[in-house]
Amino acid sequence: MSVVDRQEWDVVVVGAGGAGLRAAIEARERGARTAVICKSLFGKAHTVMAEGGIAAAMANVNAGDNWQVHFRDTMRGGKFLNQWRMAELHAQEAPDRVWELETWGALFDRTKDGRISQRNFGGHEYPRLAHVGDRTGLELIRTLQQKIVSLQQEDFKETGDYESRLKVYQECTVTRVLKDGSRVSGVFAYDRETGRFFVLEAPSVVIATGGIGKSFKVTSNSWEYTGDGHALALLAGAPLLNMEFVQFHPTGMVWPPSVKGILVTESVRGDGGVLRNSEGKRFMFDYIPDVFKEKYAQSEEEGDRWYEDPDHNRRPPELLPRDEVARAINAEVKAGRGSPHGGVFLDVSTRMPAEVIRRRLPSMYHQFKELADVDITAEAMEVGPTCHYVMGGIAVESDTAAARGVPGLFAAGEVAGGMHGSNRLGGNSLSDLLVFGRRAGWHAAEYAVGPAGARPPVDDIQVDAAAAEALRPFSAEGPAPGEEDGRPPENPYTLHQELQQSMNDLVGIIRREGEMEKALEKLADLRVRARRAGVEGHRQFNPGWHLALDLRNMLLVSECVARAALERTESRGGHTREDHPTMDRGWRRINLLCALTDPTGGLEATDPAHGQIDLTRETTDPIRPDLLALFDKEELVKYLAEEELYE
Ligand code: FAD
After folding, report:
1. pLDDT 10s digits, 191-232
2. Which residues line ligand 1 (CB under 6 A)?
3. Across residues 588-608, what is the average pLDDT?
4. Main-chain phi, psi angles of 254, to 5 degrees
5. DSSP for residue 458
6. Domain ranges for the chain
């Protein structure tokens, strides 16, 4: 019988980034007693790192903008694989979510006439990103935190307890979603500082844990991004959607090695920065794909004129969607025209006065000065692709953010799939967090406290199993059952490094069948070894133990990425196959779903040498005719499958 501490809530939100906090605010405002749990310090979520801005068609800088244009850009960016209803809701609701932030105290940069300023970004037809210098995520999180504190103060006035209706558990990691039959009943978690286990009981759980970048060696992502939410959903029986689509941002730092992968924001290009190869050529003009030819400048002069007069000129190709720019940089480096440290040059120094650079891009200025001893007001940066974002994620209902197949489970933010199709446009994540964070909180609250609300009991056996699973790294000296004797425990750090290297080299920006097969073999080997991942010491703040637990999640999501990438025999958005280099219209309607081989969520029973993931194909819903009518027929012909055109 388990003696783990338990507390009761209506809604538990796992993750305190933009999506989690927005969900928690909504759930509390709709009457649900809500707990937020995060493995970082409160306020330190990955969202804080967001630089460029929030995409919302507010039309403050160009009156031509509206939700329909934003929807169109998002679908084009995602190469029409987006869950179109999500893209529609997102484009329609993003402006209200930005306004709402201002009413809660956010202070965005202004236009000369006092409106919220909006900047250009790749793939967006008009200046659309509301921003605060290049520190937008910080302002977003600060504002949501402030709102949470103000709700807690309201609750204190009424109940005498700040945490009676909204409580944050910081530096705590959730390792399992608990269930009663098919329904959610709560989560199992541990406190990272003390190692103490506890259970939060709740009929609704919102997963908002962000991305998976820490499975790759070169990444812009923070330490939290170990794919926990993706794995929690899989283990709870919810499928993941289109995990092959991983975004490699074109511009990460490449030097010095200790900072390789750290992001260089797209605002640098949005504000006028240009990409050059070792010969000084602005090479992006050679890489404009046919589907975008009519929308992008064909000469440097036209591209430069666009910054001043966007209505009469086309945008420069440095502002193509990220997947296109990342592939172009990769090709230049491969062709021997790279910079000394294996990237290309990104230059603002010849494009803007030093004082403007320092004002508009303060973080970039300090980042390069302090980390690389480069003064970006006087010299070019060296940049190259870095693993940045995962478009794949938990399969959700578009309107409600409910995870498929598991009543009571919801997902929002980067961990949810569908919204961005095969490639996300910059700025569309922060708006996604707000739009679908709110929707997840709303529907989670409705499910928990609405008329149909029930409180499923927590099963002691599951709690004990979760505790045993979490403790296993402390007793890993011996061999796992059925394995030969005498092998020492594996070091979780070594396993993690091998995983990151394999994913980077074999399932990275350019993919090949043989390499992905090799990656799956390597993952099978790592899975066997990870069962012997052992740590010394005790449960009080033990980073090796935390990593040993995170490995389960990274191995699961990496297998999903590799299997789905091997299956999709075309190139689309963030998924580039050297052996299938073109986009195939026949694949436009195909979603790939990953589910756990053992539907009960057990990993013990499965043979670790074999895969843990089953892959199935699913045909997507036809795009609604009024949304299709927003595009020219000639454009649709490039994307839609033959039968869709006839329909
Ligand atoms: P996060 O903000 O990452 O929050 C995840 C939360 O989950 C954290 O609190 C974490 O502690 C918690 N968590 C994770 N696992 C567990 C667990 N097992 N148990 C408990 N808690 C857990 N997008 C834009 O739209 N515009 C931009 O300008 C932009 N700039 C970016 C710049 C950088 C450098 C990077 C890396 C990304 C940028 N992005 C940008 C992308 C965007 O920041 C992210 O996609 C977004 O912030 C993700 O938010 P989220 O709420 O889904 O997750």
Report:
1. 999 999 999 999 999 999 999 999 999 999 988 899 999 999
2. 14-20, 37-40, 45-47, 49-53, 136-137, 173-174, 208-210, 220-221, 224, 228-229, 263, 389, 413-415, 426-430, 433
3. 81
4. -115, -10
5. P
6. 251-387
The 10s digit of each residue's pLDDT in 126-158 is 999 999 988 899 999 999 999 999 999 999 999
Query: Which is the catalytic residue, given 22, 30, 176, 322?
Result: 322
Question: What is the 47 CA–ligand 1 centroid distance (Å)?
Answer: 4
For the stretch 269-291, pLDDT in tens is: 988 999 999 999 999 999 999 88
Q: Which CATH class is domain 251-387?
A: alpha beta
Whole-prediction pTM:
0.93
Whole-angstrom Cα distance, residue 433 to residue 435? 6
Name the residue with the closest Cα to ligand 1, atom 26. Answer: 427
pLDDT for the residue numbered 487: 74
Residue with tokens 């390499």: 515
Strand-by-strand arrangement of the 34-37 sheet? 166-169, 34-37, 11-14, 204-207, 409-411
Contact in structure between 441 and 22 (CB atoms under 8 Å): yes
112 residue type, one letter: K
Rounded Cα distance, 310 and 319, in Å = 13
Q: Is 531 a residue of the active site? A: no
User: What are 233-254's pLDDT values in tens digits?
Assistant: 999 999 999 999 999 999 999 9
Report in angstroms the alpha-carbon separations of 338 from 192, 256, 262, 384. 43, 16, 19, 9
- Ligand 1 centroid to residue 152 C-alpha, Å: 24
